[in-house]
Amino acid sequence: MQVGHLSSTESKKCVVCGKKTANYKTYEQTNIELRIPLCDTDEIRCYSKVDISDTANIAIRLIKKEIKNSY
Ligand SMILES: [Zn+2]
């Protein structure tokens, strides 16, 4: 599981506070990536509050398994 940071030109609502942000926390495993919009400014640090490594790990495994079983 690789945890990373991504700045995009595309803004979405932060999952924690609902403010528009272009910062994403990414969780990648075996080339499948989850992108969670989370603001990361000096005032608001939703980015550091969220850690879903374990859940992302399970979710990506399940997604991969389903894809393998379907095709
Ligand atoms: Zn936020």
Give structural notes.
- This protein has 71 residues and is an alpha+beta fold.
- It has one domain (2-70).
- 31% of the residues lie in helices and 39% in strands.
- It contains two helices and three strands, in the order βββαα.
- It has helices at residues 46-49, 53-70, and strands spanning 2-13, 20-29, 32-37.
- A three-stranded antiparallel β-sheet has the order 1-2-3.
- A hairpin with a 2-residue loop joins β2 and β3.
- The longest helix has 18 residues, at 53-70.
- The model has no long low-confidence stretch (mean pLDDT 94).
- It binds zinc ion.
- The site of zinc ion has 8 residues, from loops.
Task: Write the topology of this structure.
Layout: E1 2-13, E2 20-29, E3 32-37, H1 46-49, H2 53-70
Antiparallel strand pairs: 1-2, 2-3
Low-confidence regions: none
* Gross geometry: elongated
> What do the pLDDT scores average to?
94
Rounded radius of gyration (Å): 14 Å
| H/I helix tally | 2
Which ligands occur here?
zinc ion
User: Which strand order spans the largest sheet, edge to edge or round the barrel?
Assistant: 1-2-3
Total number of strands: 3
Give a short account of the largest sheet.
Answer: 3 strands, antiparallel
> Percent helix among the residues?
25-40%
Structural class assignment: alpha+beta
Order of helices and strands: EEEHH
Tell me what portion of residues adopts beta-strand conformation. 35-45%
**Euclidean distance between termini CA atoms:** 24 Å
Number of domains: 1
